[in-house]
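Long-time lurker. I teach an intro course on protein structure, and each term I like to show students one example going from raw sequence to a predicted 3D structure in token notation. This year I'd like something fresh instead of my usual example. Would anyone be willing to generate the tokens for the chain below so I can use it in lecture? Attribution to the forum is fine with me.
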Amino acid sequence: MKREVIKTSDGSTTIYLEQWEEHYHSKHGAIQEAYHVFIKSGLAQWLNQNDSNSIRILEIGFGTGLNAFISFLECQKMGLHINYHGVEAYPVNPQEVALLNYVEQLDAGNYKETFIRMHQGDWDTDLDIDPLFTLRKRKQFFGSIDDQRAFDLIYFDAFGARVQPELWDVSMFERMYKALDKNGILVTYAAKGSVRRAMQEVGFLIEKLPGPPGKREMLRAVKK
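-- Reply from a regular --
Happy to contribute to a lecture. Here you go:
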């Protein structure tokens, strides 16, 4: 499938899939969306509710590496230990990575090599990116995830239900529920009623939150 690196409204890049008319990140601002949905509504929320300096994160859709890189930058600010698993069936290629401008847009020039290593590092092995950040990129289909109480936080950043409805049904959220430890949090940019109902059916407690630029609402789900 043809992929094209384009700029979003906040100046940061994303990848556009022409055949599906789908973007990896919001066209209204890739970096803005990542901070709003995954850091502010996910990571910060979990830290506010837990007295811990370490967290286990599962990302559904490693993609461009933006969410992983921003999480890495946050751990540097806070002295937070992060064990990060990013699942991706179709990794972006080196030519596409070279066109992504996250290091410049985030004023993170000191960590340019870190971003490159996140993409160039081996798959399905633990990468000690930094003393505070361990990354494991898992090349697998989301439907084969079978972790049990292994994570505190899930960034659910799959392609939208319009193009991949099977990633937003009850069976998928059963997998996510099992993967989370008690009081774990799942955050996603999505807010469709069908998605909310699927989450509720497997036992999640749901919160509707204001969405990032370009979206009215998003969802946060908690495992009790």
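Some talking points for your students: The mean pLDDT is 97. The helical segments are 30-49, 66-78, 94-99, 102-105, 112-120, 170-179, 193-201.
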